[in-house]
């Protein structure tokens, strides 16, 4: 059997990098895409056999086609996993957030995932047992105060995953999402919306814990090889999922408290 392959967006840092390291240790061929050429080079240098790297913005549909064409050319046509992981953060009150910032978050986090799914479908369909893996967030369990655009996009990623799980079953393509707690990466240092508070401060102010990237990479492996549509990662995600189902009022109070801090 030829070497299995995974194409990871947002592969220049954070979850993407940690996932590349794990899958490389398992013997997979790695394709990395990111807007940062430096980040891609850093990740590739950490992998035992390197990686195929593509400087790419997930909003650019032509770049998607060019990158997947190039990657599958070196994998013998295989694309076992397309990991729609690239994303950006945005924190602050919606009322003071620039429309340009809202458009940027929606474009990368939501439209970028739709681009990857639609364009990636044909490549995945040619590989038996393939999987589309999406990165959602605990912010897709219950809307997070101070993170309205981000939460909206991650709810959308969750919906895309559920819809395509049914839509693509007949094509033999698994569709999965990881739903991690807020991850301790530089993404959390982002501020927006005229606020001096970072996403990190917003999250910790709501009493939510942060999760390490290695735990998310392990969850990505489990999601690809398991049957659950959504794989929750970290204590915060599990607690929020439980509360959203059984104690939604407590989450509502928590989000209101987080705004006052």
From TrEMBL:
Family indicated by similarity: Belongs to the short-chain dehydrogenases/reductases (SDR) family.
Keyword field: Oxidoreductase
UniProt KW Oxidoreductase keyword: yes
Xref: Gene3D superfamilies: NAD(P)-binding Rossmann-like Domain
Origin: domain of life: Bacteria
SUPFAM superfamilies found in the cross-reference section: NAD(P)-binding Rossmann-fold domains
Name by which UniProt lists this protein: NADP-dependent 3-hydroxy acid dehydrogenase YdfG
A GO MF term: oxidoreductase activity
